[in-house]
What we know:
alpha/beta, Rossmann fold, ten-stranded mixed β-sheet, globular
Amino acid sequence: MKAICATDLSAASEATIESETCLECLGRIGVEEIHLVTVIPSNVHAGMPGMDFEERRERALARYRRVIEGAGFDVDAHVVRGTPHRRINGVAEAVGANLTIVGSRGKSPLENRVIGSTARNLARTTVVPLLVNRIEREADDPDVLREHLFRRILYATDFSENAERAFEAFSYLRHATREATLVHVETPKDPPLSNGDDPEARLAELAARLEDWGIETRTEIRSGDPADEILAAEADHEPTTILVGSRGHSRLRRLMLGSVSEDVVTRASGNVMLVPPDRAA
């Protein structure tokens, strides 16, 4: 597997790269090759007064490379210019990446939104599964909030096609997952399930598949607003990562209403792994 690790060379973005435990987790799920991507905004120029971008960038990337190679990965670095989320997605497509990782500062008491613009835009547009890795906010030398990225997974499903696509990620996450909580949130607008199935039966079927892999699994059905209930389940069970699929709403619908997956990525306290729809669909 190939992973994109997006970095803006800040102390926060270093946290995942320099966390031995996070790197170990990536290795356990099959990542062998990591592509470091740093994007220089189009309006920033190396010759601007007080801006020694070239030297800072080279020092940082050399340090990151040593750390990642020391953990046993092949490493490549990409320095590109433009809009961060577009260029990150472009590199992911160009190298055939299986996963994109972006660090995000944790929640501020004064903010309703917890992730930066690049992470938020990636959540809306990512072309491969996206891991938003939550980083300590109020720290000069920040660390990741959940080191064991995939040890405890909270999987949220509405039994849609894309939710099933997200569940397929367990085919590789299982190598690093010990516990899983499977959550379905009922709402009055739920479409009927096919073949007369009920949510409990569907969750039990999914749980049996995970238990065959030796993952300790629980199931839970909640009622209410899907995003609110998924986040309430996060507070109850304290997973290391929430796993959720995106339905890929149109830009207009997203701007008007938002999507459940985007709300979860934006408001979650811990890590979130977002699986986008199959682009061929």
